[in-house]
Amino acid sequence: MRLRHIEIFQAIRQTGSISAAAQLLHVSQPAVTKVLQHAELQLGFALFLRVRGKLQPTPEALALEREVEKVTESLQGVRRLAKSLRRAPGQSVRIGAIPALALSLLPPAILEWKREYPDMACELSSDHSRELVQKLLMREIDLALTLNFSGHPGLTTQVLANGVLVALASKGYWSAAEINRPLPLSELAGAPLIGLSSADPLATKLDSYLENVAPPPRVTISVQTYSLA
Q1: Would you state the pLDDT for residue 90?
Q2: Closest to 168 (Cα-Cα) out of 214, 108, 100, 107
């Protein structure tokens, strides 16, 4: 299938008719019919059958649909990248951050930055680490803030700060004396624990710490963001 075939195929799937697909694509109805017929001729089977006045996809068309969607997503990625490449440098900065940093670190940092560069435009967004990496590779953002990033061959990383891993609990769970000392992992044995989703950059490290705890903590809830925990 050619790209034009895919475009017509998806327009008909979305609208259910050739006339509506022509309107969606801003072309004539005969043009849509011609492209559809050419696609079916090349494929060697029908893509749609008319049922009660509407075009219904054939089993072959449904089998093709998932692969067609992959091609469409790739094309959209190319368009997004091309749009990013057209952007004039130096006029704005686009910053992405994981939710925990976006809610805590980013607002005061941006406030201070705007005082230094009042005329510079800034676009902020919040995503999980995997999505931030993808946006950086697609040049949809310029910088990303995350935790415990293992690196990527297409990206440059820089450590900005170091911190400690802490446990949170309801008030009164620990005494004042216990709060002022490091928490032994043995105290989490068998404890009900809100765990971190496997998508979290610190999840693997935390799991390695808890492997030797017996009995292991009872994790019945997993979250992707610390604020949700």
Answers
A1: 59
A2: 100
Q: Right CATH number for 3-86 from 1.10.10.10, 1.25.40.10, 3.30.750.24, 2.70.40.10?
A: 1.10.10.10
**Residue closest to 87 by CA, chosen among 138, 127, 126, 155:** 138
Phi-psi region at 204: left, alpha or beta (left = phi > 0; alpha = psi -120 to 50): alpha
Residues 48-77: b if buried by 16+ CB within 10 A, e if exposed: beeeeeebebeeebeebeeebeeeeeeeee
d(CA 5, CA 17): 15
Count of positions (residues) in the chain: 229
Q: What pLDDT is recorded for position 147?
A: 85
Nearest residue to 218 (alpha-carbon basis) of 198, 194, 200, 202: 194
**In the chain, which residues have pLDDT < 50?**
none
What per-residue confidence (pLDDT) applies to 190? 92
